[in-house]
Each structure stands twice: as C-alpha cells, then as structure tokens.
C-alpha cells in the first residue's frame, strides 16, 4: 500500500552534480538517483506534512489546465521514490545490504573488492597535481599517450618478429606483466578521481556478463563531478596510462633483441587488444563512458537493458523510462539489442578460442 504521508529519508543528500543535474544520493546504498528540475521542486514539499492527494492538489492549483497530467506526473514521481526506497517507511532495495561486502552482484557483473585504501595512498600525488591548471597534466598525458601508442604499435608491426614464430616463455612473462599494467590502468582512473575530490570506493576484479574477467575501480561518485571535461578525463585516464606504457614497451622492443624483445612484442600485442576493447562502444568500456559523457547522456546502457528487460518480460515501465520520448526509447532498445547480440557473439568467440589458448599455453611451456 502506498505511503500515505510521503517524506524523504533524512540521511539522503540532494546535490547538483554532472552538468548541474539534480541528484539524490543515498548513502545507505551508495546510489545516485537522477531527477528532473521539476522533480527537485516537488522534493521540497515532500516533508511528511501532506498526503499524496494534497501534494497533487498543491501543484494543480498552479496550473489547473493540466490537472490530469500533473496528478499523473506527481503520482509517478512519488511511486518511483518509494520503489527506490527513498521515502521513510519504504523498503530498501537489495543492494543496500551489499555496499560493505567484498563480493557484490551488480548489473550482470559480480565483483570482488580487493582494496579500499587507494584514496589514502594517492592523496599525496593528487595534492601536487591540484596545484597545476587542469589542462596542463591532461594535455601532457594525453599527448604522451598518443605518441606512445603510435610508437609502440609501429614497433610491433615494423620491428619485431611474427608473434606466432616466437611463442614460448616470453608469452607467459608478457601475460604476467600485462596484469601489472592493468593495475596501472585502474590506478590512473583512481588518481584522476582523487584529484577531482571524488575518491574511488574500491579496486577489484569482476566478471563482466559472468564470463569476461576485468579489473575495475568503483568510481560511482564521479556523478558529483560537474564539469564534462573532468568526467571525460576520468574515463580516459586508464587509456592514457596504457599509451605511456605502450611507448615504454615499444622502446624496449626497439632497443633489444632475443627474449626481452620477444616478451615486449607479446606485451605490445596485448596492449593493442586492450586498446581495441577499451574503445568498443558496444561494451561498458572507458571509451563508451567518454562518448556517453560527451553526448550528455547518463547510464544509457542501463536504460537500454532495463527497457529490453521490461519488453521481453512484458513488465510495465518504471516512471523514469515511461517518461522517455518514443524516439529515444527506440534508439535505446536498438542499441541494447545490438550490444546484447555482440556480447553473445563475444562469449561464443571466447568459448571457441579456449582450445587455441590451451595450445598456445602448451607451446609456451615447450610441450
């Protein structure tokens, strides 16, 4: 039964975050809820002193001509707040119990938190970087990444031998080193977040769609970053880190031979694959987040898959999805469908590649 006298939970925080969009932050679940500016006005009256009908009447009095539409909109907004557990007396969503857990489930991506200490470790470096104008380190690291990728991949294709001819121990060493570079990739995200004063909540490993292992840092609080440029830099920080390391590995491959060069060549090949994946807009990658930010969109993938889920299960749309225009809804469904098909294709490709991977591993150890 709907709550008769709606009132926001006292611990909730209403802020203006990315692009000055109003947001409700729930510290219990660690979740940000986007609302419209009209919704922000309604929030100021949800104080437990009025019934639902009185709230509707209050806004209808300001615009009698649109009484039916206003009542529906206010009712839908109150329902969405209650469904999200934001009203006193409403049940908290399941994720409220998982905020402090090290093993969590979230959007088809179970994850394990390895450490929550990065903010403490990175703050001394972040403090030094905050002294500089933001465009200086961003421009420096961005330009260095482009040069690094260009030099590294040129070295891979023009200087090093064919990788299939040198398969062996260098492949195993390169795979181990790639894991280290992934840590640098994620730490770069965390460092930029620290500079922007939105520390990451943790670093760990996850299974994307339950089959693809990935490292991650939880930068949910990036919603608090108002500037679009700051959010794009945060999204691209890992790729910029990869670019610098690609240049370093390229120098090693160019200046050496034998085992060291072969190891560097395999590492460059892995970095090339990583760059292609990170720029893939059909996966929740850094490149996708940067494009989403530049387009002024928020959680497009989440809305796309939520729409598909409601469509396939024939469930009614939540208020925030029902409020989308028909054209926007169709675009999201098309994108979600293509992404889902691509993910299935990727899973199939990974399964088919297992025998080849095993054979490469056998060759690497000389069997």
Question: What's the topology here?
Answer:
Elements: E1 13-16, E2 22-26, E3 31-34, H1 37-43, H2 52-60, H3 67-83, E4 103-104, E5 111-115, H4 118-129, H5 135-158, H6 169-195, E6 203-208, E7 212-217, H7 228-255, H8 258-278, H9 286-294, H10 300-313, H11 319-322, H12 326-364
Antiparallel strand pairs: 1-2, 2-3, 4-5, 5-6, 6-7
Helix pairs in contact: 2-3, 4-6, 5-7, 5-8, 6-7, 6-8, 7-8, 7-9, 10-12
Transmembrane segments: 135-159, 166-185, 191-211, 232-253, 333-354
Protein name: PqqD family peptide modification chaperone
Keywords: Membrane, Transmembrane, Transmembrane helix
Describe this protein's structure:
With 367 residues, this protein is an alpha+beta fold. The protein folds into 3 domains: 13-99, Arc Repressor Mutant, subunit A (Orthogonal Bundle), CATH 1.10.10; 119-198 and 223-287, no CATH class; 299-367. 57% of the residues lie in helices and 9% in strands. It has 12 helices and 7 strands. The protein has a 4-stranded antiparallel beta sheet with strand order 4-5-6-7. Strands 1-2-3 form a 3-stranded antiparallel beta sheet, with no helix packed on it. Strand 6 and strand 7 (212-217) form a beta hairpin. The protein is elongated, with a radius of gyration of 24 Å. It starts with 12 loop residues before the first strand and ends with a helix. The relative contact order is 0.10. It comes from Nonomuraea typhae. Keywords: Membrane, Transmembrane, Transmembrane helix. This is PqqD family peptide modification chaperone. The chain crosses the membrane at residues 135-159, 166-185, 191-211, 232-253, 333-354.
């Amino acid at each position: 039964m709907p709550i008769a006298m709606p009132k926001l939970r006292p611990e909730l925080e209403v802020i203006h975050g990315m692009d000055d969009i109003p947001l409700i932050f729930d510290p219990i679940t660690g979740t940000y809820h986007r609302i419209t500016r009209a919704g922000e006005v309604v929030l100021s009256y949800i104080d437990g002193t009025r019934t639902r009908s009185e709230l509707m009447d209050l806004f209808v009095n300001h615009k009698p001509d649109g009484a039916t539409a206003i009542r529906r909109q206010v009712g839908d907004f109150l329902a969405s707040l209650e469904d999200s557990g934001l009203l006193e007396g409403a049940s908290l969503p399941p994720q409220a119990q998982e905020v402090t857990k090290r093993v969590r489930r979230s959007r088809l991506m179970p994850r394990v938190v390895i450490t929550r200490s990065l903010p403490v470790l990175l703050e001394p470096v972040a403090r030094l970087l905050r002294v500089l104008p933001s465009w200086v380190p961003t421009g420096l690291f961005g330009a260095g990444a482009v040069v690094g990728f260009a030099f590294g991949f040129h070295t891979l294709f023009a200087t090093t031998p064919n990788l299939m001819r040198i398969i062996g121990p260098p492949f195993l060493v390169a795979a181990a080193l790639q894991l280290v570079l992934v840590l640098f990739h994620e730490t770069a995200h965390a460092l930029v977040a620290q500079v922007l004063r939105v520390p990451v909540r943790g670093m760990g490993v996850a299974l994307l769609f339950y089959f693809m292992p990935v490292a991650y840092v939880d930068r949910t609080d990036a919603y608090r970053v108002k500037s679009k440029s700051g959010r794009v830099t945060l999204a691209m920080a890992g790729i910029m880190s990869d670019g610098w390391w690609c240049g370093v590995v390229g120098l090693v491959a160019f200046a050496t031979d034998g085992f060291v060069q072969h190891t560097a060549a395999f590492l460059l090949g892995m970095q090339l694959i990583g760059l292609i994946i990170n720029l893939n807009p059909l996966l929740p990658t850094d490149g996708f987040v940067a494009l989403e930010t530049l387009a002024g969109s928020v959680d497009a993938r989440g809305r796309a898959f939520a729409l598909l889920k409601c469509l396939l299960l024939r469930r009614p749309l939540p208020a925030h999805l029902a409020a989308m225009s028909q054209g926007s809804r169709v675009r999201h469904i098309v994108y979600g469908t293509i992404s889902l098909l691509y993910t299935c294709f990727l899973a199939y490709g990974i399964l088919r590649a297992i025998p080849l991977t095993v054979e490469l591993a056998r060759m690497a150890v000389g069997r």
